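Minimal example, chain plus 2'-deoxyguanosine-5'-monophosphate.
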Amino acid sequence: MSCLFCRIVKREVPANVVAENEHALAFRDINPAAPTHVLVIPKVHVTDVSEASDTSLLGQVFALARQVAKSEGLEQDGYRLVVNNGKNAGQSVFHLHMHVLGGRAMAWPPG
Ligand code: DGP
């Protein structure tokens, strides 16, 4: 198993896990781009959005992202959910993941 995030799911690679549900895992990004920066991933290997045929799995990822935003105290001031999908978007780990970013104001549009 060479996928980094699959190895985090299996606890073969250490990560700062903040939450999980039956189908998704949330852990802090190793290179935070905001005061709060958590990644939410499906526990099964899905490369990207195009490969995610199970829409209920996407719902589990969204639900856990919302739970993390609440537990991290981001609800009142807001937060950003980002999915970099594919090369042009800058996806660097090819296991679908949602970034939960918060704790400061963020510019739009992104660069
Ligand atoms: P993306 O560019 O959307 O593919 O984001 C991948 C993110 O994954 C990036 O923000 C850094 C993070 N990351 C890469 N390797 C590791 C790791 O080993 N542990 C953790 N916690 N995060 C990682």
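Residues 4, 13, 15, 27-31, 39, 84, 90-93 surround 2'-deoxyguanosine-5'-monophosphate (CB under 6 Å). The helical segments are 4-9, 55-71.
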